[in-house]
Amino acid sequence: MDLDWILNHLGEERERYFGAVAPPLLQSSNFAFPTVADMRAQAGDEFGHHFYTRGNNPTVEILRRKLAALEGAEDCLVFGSGAAAIAAAVIASVSAGDHVVCVQKPYSWTRRLLADLLPRFAVTTTFVDAADAGSVEAALTPGTRLLVLESPNTLTFELQDLAALAAVARPRGVRTLCDNSYASPLNQSPLAFGIDLVAHSATKYIGGHGDVVAGALCGPQALLREVFRGPYMTLGAIPSPHDAWLLLRGLRTLPLRMRRCAATALQVAAFLEAHPKVERVWYPHLPSHPQHALALRQMRGGSGLLSLAIRCEDVSGVERFCDALRRFLMSVSWGGYESLACPIAAFLPAGTSAAAKAGQVPANLVRLSIGLEEPDVLIADLAQALDRV
Ligand SMILES: *Cc1c(COP(=O)(O)O)cnc(C)c1O
């Protein structure tokens, strides 16, 4: 992958825009034509032309080309959120009566889509522990159309062997979708393992600055045209050109940000793992992670996202830890320049036992998103907060 070319040159066409170094922000809802013949020529193929911004827009198109190249995909569609990208991929792939197989603990709104919304339209889902290709294979039925993966998984970062699962699904005509938000396009290429579609929450590493909510879907053009004609155009969950412009700006530093936050996260994870107030750490690039070998084989690098379980009786210990943090902001989301802490305890009643579970996640789990700060500053902050547990 010629990363510098993709990030600095691909799709920019600066000669069309006065040689401007930064890409044009074409904040226009529609595009005008001099003749009926010109209008007719564009109307037939909104996927690749500029007609109306719900379909395509020149600023968004620059982003589409760069994200497609980063994923090694033929094309990309950009959405108004990661949830919209995932929902569009799923909706384009199923009809009433069809069946989906999904990883056990997907992102919460992926679960809502599959467990709550789609059953109203007679689409059912089986959730399986996809660490084992055999249990995925066993869950497939003659009606299964789609396998939904997320590697590493949300909050506890279970991995799936993407090549093995693609090899299970493809011969049976089951389409595969992988949420690649954790790794970013830089650290994992699901399409290269035989996965059909790759989704991102661009809100996270692609944007990287805590200022945009957006999503992306990458894959073969034929599949994306199917998504485009269906949910993309009909549901209209598109990004604004301004959001696309901010994402292009965020992309310029993606390699630097990923390298920095992964290196710091590994230091933080090692510090936490050795701390007596920490019961457990989840980070795929720690040698103690049960799927460390798979992480090294399948991913080109780590990310800044890890979780720890606080050693305490009930969630008041988690509260004392989180309330004492001075450098980490307490917030949802992740993948930005700023370090964040997200305690599961915030979604549970005060006093819940540390041994309880929220869904399948321990009540004493805190997810950390490591940003671009100095590692020593973050570790010192965690150390003083752990003293309060
Ligand atoms: C945040 C997130 C999403 C949803 O993305 P939005 O941009 O918030 O809609 C999907 N998958 C994962 C793994 C996420 O963390």
TrEMBL record:
One GO CC term on file: cytoplasm
Pfam families xrefs: Cys_Met_Meta_PP
Superkingdom of origin organism: Bacteria
Cofactor: pyridoxal 5'-phosphate
Modification N6-(pyridoxal phosphate)lysine occurs at: K204
Keyword Lyase set for record: yes
Keyword annotations: Lyase, Pyridoxal phosphate
Single GO MF descriptor: carbon-sulfur lyase activity
Assigned protein family: Belongs to the trans-sulfuration enzymes family.
Protein name listed in UniProt: Cystathionine beta-lyase
Species of origin: Mizugakiibacter sediminis
